[in-house]
Design goal:
Elements: E1 2-5, E2 15-20, E3 24-31, E4 34-38, H1 53-59, E5 63-74, E6 77-78, H2 80-86, H3 91-100, E7 103-113, E8 116-117, H4 123-134, E9 141-143, H5 150-159, E10 167-172, E11 182-188, E12 191-202, E13 211-219, E14 225-231, H6 236-250, H7 265-272, E15 292-304, E16 307-308, E17 311-312, E18 317-321, H8 343-347
Parallel strand pairs: 1-11, 7-9
Antiparallel strand pairs: 2-10, 3-4, 3-5, 5-6, 5-7, 7-8, 10-11, 12-13, 12-15, 13-14, 15-18, 16-17
Length: about 350
């Protein structure tokens, strides 16, 4: 069952609210000693999170199916990049990471128990059955917090972000579990930021045709421009129009460009700690990450939902150009900071 975006928490009665976890969606099957965990697109996850098998056997009934999320908590907040590191072909590497940063499983729905298909039951009844099953679960297996109190849910929305959560999920208490349908609501944080446009990538159909994405930068307190993400939410016609629009900024763009060392990005990034575009990573192997520099003279306003470290966690949404704003004012200090909230408090530990 999937979720569709909503601008705010629903105001009518009959809703169950839960924190929106930022991890890998996972369905867990247990049948006796056999435990099998799969992703939303039906791929097996067990080899990437071997440390969860024994705790799941200890916590779950002998025959059941649960829906939830695999997460990693580090320093009191969720760390999505630590999850990405686990998708590695070498078992020895996965084992080492499992010891350094062990994962947890957060359950939020019970789909089957002792051979009984529970998907046809109302959400409220499934939640009660889930609490009966996992009420005494021990870390790293957790039961997600849930409430019918809209005021408390709104408090969660603002307070839990400091722990790396995405927002709040809302489910109708009367709804059945509906596989493949967007039957839940996800209310996520939406903010805007003014960023320097310092480069772009061509669309995959080839150079000179359409712009694929704009590369965004923000200045730190020392005046270094860091690559913080991309924006690519353009119509097909706008992608074509951006080609001549950006052309003047391409002239002599690499001269004195703050990301001019991209060809030797690894050494430069290691030395300076600066984020630089064009780097192959564990989650984008095989993709063309070549980019075209632009003189960093234009400013764009984008909408974003979450900042992880010094980078936008997800892709941003283009809002408008800001010709009234100088690039030097596009700094990290414009971004809203949310106080950290310990994951242990969320779990009630």
């Amino acid at each position: 069952m999937l979720a569709k975006p909503a601008d705010k928490l629903p105001s009518d009665d009959g809703w169950l609210f839960e924190p929106k976890w930022d991890g890998f969606r996972a369905v867990v099957f247990r049948d006796g000693d056999e435990v099998y965990t799969q992703s939303r697109d039906l791929k097996p996850l067990d080899r990437y999170f071997p440390e969860l098998a024994d705790p799941l056997r200890a916590a779950l009934p002998e025959r059941c199916i649960l829906d939830g999320e695999v997460v990693i908590s580090k320093n009191g907040e969720l760390d999505f990049e630590a999850l990405l590191l686990r998708i590695h072909p070498a078992a020895s590497r996965v084992k080492m990471l499992a010891g350094e940063s062990p994962a947890s499983f957060v359950a939020w729905d019970l789909l089957a128990l002792d051979g009984e298909d529970l998907r046809g039951l109302p959400q409220g009844e499934r939640r009660a059955r889930l609490e009966g099953v996992l009420g005494n679960a021990q870390p790293p297996v957790h039961l997600t917090p849930a409430t019918t109190d809209r005021v408390l849910a709104d408090d969660w929305f603002h307070r839990f972000e400091g722990a790396g959560l995405d927002g709040v999920i809302a489910k109708r208490l009367s709804d059945q579990y509906q596989p493949g349908k967007r039957a839940m609501l996800k209310i996520k944080h939406q903010r805007t930021a003014d960023c320097v446009v310092a480069g772009f990538r061509w669309h995959k159909n080839g150079p000179g045709t359409h712009v694929g994405s704009l590369l965004l930068g923000l200045f730190d307190d020392e005046g270094t421009l860091h690559h913080v993400g991309v924006t690519s939410s353009f119509t097909w016609d706008k992608r074509a129009a951006l080609v001549p629009e950006l052309e003047p900024l391409r002239k002599n763009a690499l001269e004195g460009h703050p990301w001019g060392e991209w060809a030797d990005w690894a050494a430069a990034a290691e030395a300076s700690g600066q984020r630089v575009p064009g780097a192959t990573s564990r989650w984008n192997r095989g993709k063309d990450l070549s980019w075209e520099p632009l003189r960093p003279e234009r400013v764009v306003e984008v909408a974003y939902d979450h900042l992880q470290g010094d980078r936008f966690r997800h892709g941003t949404t283009f809002k408008r150009w800001r010709p009234d704003k100088p690039p030097a004012e596009c700094r990290y200090d414009q971004l809203e900071e949310t106080p950290a909230y310990e994951i242990a408090k969320i779990f009630g530990a």
